[in-house]
Design a protein that fits this description.
single chain, mainly alpha
């Protein structure tokens, strides 16, 4: 009996390891599929409304696709505006930025005792071996990957909305074995994910607006770019807010000469993040986001390791779904309680 249990545990470890290996190896399929699932969940209430009004799917699905395309169009316009903002910057700004960066690097070198070859410039020393041609290839590959992944996500989303891939039936046949339990869990997942995405979008939007306005008020260049970056990074739980503050603070160091003004600027953008992300977001999330900090950090590291940046963005919604499913089984209540930080 003991040997059988040991064998089962070893087999379970092997299966879990194989699943994680496949998730990483076939990320080009799983990332668009998971993204499409969340997009489909957002539009399922609208699809049910269309169904109640007896509107056929060959009409309702193109309407949803047009809505998604409109969102991407707005995003494209914002990216274009931020790009034009950077391209239209005068040469004096970049000269000033280069001077500040050089001074900062020299200060760091002196602190750590780094010695360069006499007569060797900073650019040659730190960018030795780098050339523009070597960077164009990877950049084009990245753009190609983004386009192909976006098209695959749209394809999977259409299949999910059309009912070709029925997640509710999949839950019923694989996990719950009971229609009532699978329907109840699926509706709970749908409700919580919609709440999560709506709140995250609104909080990220106001964070981006706050960063942009702070840049305008303190006369920091590229407010649209920094607002857009803060909006996007805010979708990465915890880490994104820290990165956006750090990047903008370093950039402001170039333009703001008075240290007291720079300090007030950093306090302002930090205050925006704290008020929106640490105070208002948990209030609006409510029970939807009852996951403790340790679980969040572990999931961020885990999915970030497997799927990179998309994994960082998707880690928390995936964790929410896993927790909802575990809540339906009494024998897994201990794990669910540990994830939420509550006493079991």
């Amino acid at each position: 009996m003991k040997d059988t249990r040991t064998t089962n545990i070893l087999l379970l470890i092997i299966v879990i390891s194989l699943v994680f290996y496949l998730l990483q190896t076939l990320s080009f399929i799983f990332i668009p599929l998971v993204l499409a699932m969340f997009i489909a969940l957002l539009f399922l209430p609208l699809m049910r409304w269309f169904n109640k009004k007896s509107i056929p799917k060959f009409v309702s699905i193109p309407v949803v696709v047009l809505i998604i395309a409109g969102v991407f169009r707005v995003g494209g316009v914002l990216i274009q505006l931020s790009s034009n903002e950077i391209l239209e910057a005068n040469g004096s700004f970049f000269e000033k930025a280069e001077t500040k960066i050089v001074d900062l690097i020299i200060l760091i070198e002196n602190y750590f005792g780094v010695v360069r070859v006499e007569g060797d410039s900073l650019m040659n020393h730190y960018l030795q071996g780098n050339n523009l041609a070597g960077k164009i290839g990877p950049s084009l590959d990245f753009v190609g990957d983004v386009i192909s992944m976006s098209l695959m996500t749209l394809f999977f989303a259409i299949l999910l909305l059309a009912g070709s891939i029925n997640v509710e039936k999949l839950l019923n046949s694989t996990i719950f074995k009971q229609k009532h339990a699978s329907v109840k869990t699926f509706r709970k997942i749908e409700k919580d994910i919609i709440t999560f995405v709506k709140v995250k979008f609104i909080i990220s939007l106001f964070t981006g607006i706050g960063f942009g306005l702070a840049c305008v008020f303190f006369d920091v260049s590229f407010p649209i770019f920094w607002g857009l970056l803060a909006f996007l990074l805010n979708f990465i739980q915890m880490i994104g807010s820290i990165v956006s503050i750090a990047l903008l603070a370093l950039f402001a160091l170039v333009e703001i000469d008075v240290m007291s003004t720079l300090l007030f600027f950093v306090i302002t953008i930090t205050g925006v993040q704290v008020v929106l992300g640490s105070v208002l977001e948990p209030i609006f999330m409510g029970k939807t986001f009852s996951i403790n900090v340790i679980t969040i950090l572990v999931m961020l590291m885990f999915w970030g390791f497997i799927w990179g940046i998309p994994g960082l963005i998707l880690s928390i919604p995936i964790t929410v779904i896993v927790k909802i499913i575990l809540d339906q089984f009494p024998k897994y209540q201990v794990i669910s309680s540990l994830m939420s930080g509550k006493d079991s």
